[in-house]
Amino acid sequence: MAYLQLNTKSLKHNFKYLDAIFKKDRKEWGVVTKLLCGNELFLKELLKLKPKTVLDSRLSNLKKIKEIDPSVETVYIKPVPQRSIDDLLAFADISFNTQFSTIKAINDRALKLGKRHQIVIMIEMGDLREGVMREDFIDFYDKVFNLKGVEVVGLGANLNCMNGIMPSHDKLIQMSLYEQLIEAKFNKKIKWVSAGTSISFPLLTKGLVPEGVNHFRIGETLYFGNDIVEHTNIPEMKQDVFLLKAEIIEIIEKPKNPTGLVGVNVAGEKPSFEIMDYKETSYRAILDIGLLDVDPKHLTIIDEDHDKYGLVGSSSDMIVIDVDENKANFKVGDLVSFKVDYMGALTLLNSKYIGKRII
User: Fold this and answer.
1) CA-based, 20 to 30 A from 141: which of 72, 100, 256, 358?
2) Alanine racemase N-terminal domain: which residues (predicted)?
3) How far is CA 348 from CA 34, 151, 191, 224, in A?
4) CATH superfamily ID and name for 8-233
């Protein structure tokens, strides 16, 4: 079975690196766990690092986190379906909200349960995903402050996830000003001004985050050690937290050109091929993983000759790679290692057919 490997040493290194930066700049941060898809083995390793707060977009994942460590603060990071409010109050200490009708429903249910639920109100800052419109936010906060079953602990914004709108110094200053306006008008203290996700982290390292913005939600940069604005690795961080290991189930020298009438393949594509010498051959390795588990475009082979290797094709349960003259002497039963990007890891973690291991 192919498996995804979590390197706990590299994860710990990246966590400590980020934690030191946030502490130096006097910012709070939480770890976004949605990538882990509720995998208990991986969640336990993450929670050993003692993050103050974990954030997820699935209530079932937050339930698993609370089962592992009831003391950790949990945050639900998308507007909750009203039919899931009971689960929200059971497994999330804080939730992100944008609809007054939903907040009112949370409030009413919390009062019946003798609870007070904490909420962050999201403001629309241009990416056009979730968020209260800026011209409406004062009236919105006014209505919410009158509710007794919820406590407003923050304002936040999401950027880049929907339409690719980037965070900027100006947008973060606007958020800071909104917090000051709310505190001045309503005489209320807002604990968090949540600047965003890993996409905002490079602004912090460049000194472009205003003092009033004091909270970050970090996932991708923790797990992959990357600057997702510049699409580069952060030299001080590790990039091998996740590795995919796939077993070779066939390796045979074959012609480079297929023969016969070309039709539509299982993925609904009609392949095209370069005209080449039909006598040319290369070794092709079939791996025990397929499109059902991951799109190969999210994988990078780890081998000194990987620049010579190429993806030949893929079907639902198999991926075929060209290993040229097979100088690495691959054979059936060998494991081929791949780096994975965020979307690759996400689909692999969501696949029940891929094993999960730690080192």
Assistant:
1) 72
2) 7-226
3) 13, 37, 36, 15
4) Alanine racemase (3.20.20.10)
The residue length of the chain stands at 359
Beta strand pairing call for 73-76 and 215-218 = unpaired
Residue the block writes with tokens 């003092």: 211
All structural domains of the chain with their residue ranges: 8-233, 242-358
pLDDT mean over 111-124: 98
Please check whether residue 191 is in contact with residue 153, taking contact to mean a CB–CB distance below 8 angstroms. yes
Asked whether residue 265 carries a pLDDT value surpassing 80, the answer given is no
Report d(CA 144, CA 137) in Å as an integer. Answer: 10
- Report the alpha-carbon angle 319-321-323, nearest 5: 155
Q: Inform me whether the pLDDT recorded for 274 exceeds 90.
A: no
Res. 278 pLDDT band, cuts 50 70 90: low
| CATH 2.60.40 describes domain 242-358 | no
| 300-340 pLDDT tens trace | 998 766 666 888 889 999 999 999 999 889 999 999 999 99
- CA–CA dist 21, 227 (Å, integer): 14
CA distance 98 to 28: 22
Q: How large a percentage of the chain has pLDDT more than 70? A: 97
| Closest by CA position to 85, among listed 137, 8, 150, 182 | 150
Q: How far apart, in whole angstroms, are the C-alpha atoms of residue 61 and residue 67? A: 10
Q: How high is the pLDDT of residue 311?
A: 85
Q: Where does the pLDDT of residue 275 fall: very low under 50, low under 70, confident under 90, or very high at 90 and above? A: low
* HEC letters along 83-137: HHHHHHHHHCCEEEECCHHHHHHHHHHHHHHCCCEEEEEEECCCCCCCCECHHHH
DSSP 8-state secondary structure symbol assigned to residue 257: S
**CA–CA separation, 245 vs 211, rounded Å?**
43
Q: How remote is the C-alpha of 226 from its chain's centroid?
A: 12
